[in-house]
């Protein structure tokens, strides 16, 4: 995180931003494990209208607070990035040169809201493998939807020894907790991913020291685990680790299960050490008096509504995974090497024996060719 731009913030705002940063940092340090080798801190966050200008746009406070939150993770799937990329680029500058981003073009589909999907990642912790593409439903794949309004975005990453092929989504909301189009988008996306799983991971031969996983994560707009929206995800072979299933809701009230991190069939070769929902409102944007003048100027309906356009109406869902397979690899090398050292000798001996047996016959054929007169 690069804090030098704080010096360019107006002095009357700077002290407020710094005070918020210090409080937020303390909260993050308490609730989020420290970053380091051998682990992956994966998160998903719908940042409300990230790039929008409602109520006058985001303050400097929000820009720094969002970057601070992101900096404590290794890889973050971000939804609701808007056409205007200034907010995203501003946050990327604050994160520093070790961070990178991959994002989609704007969705012009009905219900797409001119949004993008993005992955932000710390290059010191995560490697981009080169896989990147938008997931398009094949013709007549669905009776409910022609295409997903915000085209799902698939990217491949490697953390430690483990590969993570991630598909981030922002599913259509509409009206009602079990909107038919929403159910259709979830079901069709999950079904297509399951059908194409072999394109992303080796589904036949697993390598213990190099686990591969296929995940779908993001904003599914799932209200309850008991609803058909959730069934549409799980019935296609996607599972949610127990640690994630026990989490409270990811909306501000913590009573809706909009955001999810789901694995295809199993968390192959990795262990979910810890998972939670981080509530940044416990630390920042929780005192209306601090922002009285900004709130008045914005003409917002209420402080609680206004602040969601500063931070978000979604909290951050995250999980920590063990990705260190060094011991398993060393054991594999030890066992394979002992066999390999024996096998090549046998193979070489067989090849040498075959060549030795074949040599006289070859010489005889050559000699016969030389004796045959030209005609």
Tell me how many strands there are. Answer: 12
Spans with pLDDT under 50 lasting ≥5 residues?
A: 345-353
Largest sheet: 6 strands, mixed
Output the helix-strand order.
Answer: HEHEHEEEEEHHEHEHEEHHEH
What value does the Rg take, in angstroms? 27 Å
CATH superfamily of the largest domain: Endonuclease/exonuclease/phosphatase
| CATH top-level class of the largest domain | Alpha Beta
What percent strand?
A: 15-25%
Q: Average pLDDT value?
A: 89
Question: What's the number of helices?
Answer: 10
Which architecture name of the largest domain does CATH use? 4-Layer Sandwich
Helical content (DSSP H or I, runs of 4+): 25-40%
Number of domains: 2
Principal-axes shape call: globular
CATH topology of the largest domain: Deoxyribonuclease I, Chain A
Strand order of the largest sheet: 3-4-2-1-12-11
Termini separation = 86 Å
- Secondary structure class reads alpha+beta
Q: Could you characterize what this model shows?
A:
35% of the residues lie in helices and 23% in strands. It has 2 domains: 4-324, Endonuclease/exonuclease/phosphatase (Deoxyribonuclease I, Chain A, 4-Layer Sandwich), CATH 3.60.10; 327-375. With 375 residues, it is an alpha+beta fold. It has helices at 11-31, 60-71, 86-95, 180-195, 197-200, 228-234, 242-245, 292-298, 303-308, 326-371; strands at 39-50, 75-82, 99-103, 115-122, 127-134, 153-159, 162-170, 212-219, 238-239, 259-264, 271-278, 316-322. The termini are far apart. The strands form 2 sheets. Strands 3-4-2-1-12-11 form a 6-stranded mixed sheet, covered by helices on one side. Strands 5-6-7-8-10-9 form a 6-stranded mixed sheet, with no helix packed on it. A hairpin with a 2-residue loop joins strand 6 (153-159) and strand 7 (162-170). Helix 1 (11-31) packs parallel to helix 2 (60-71).
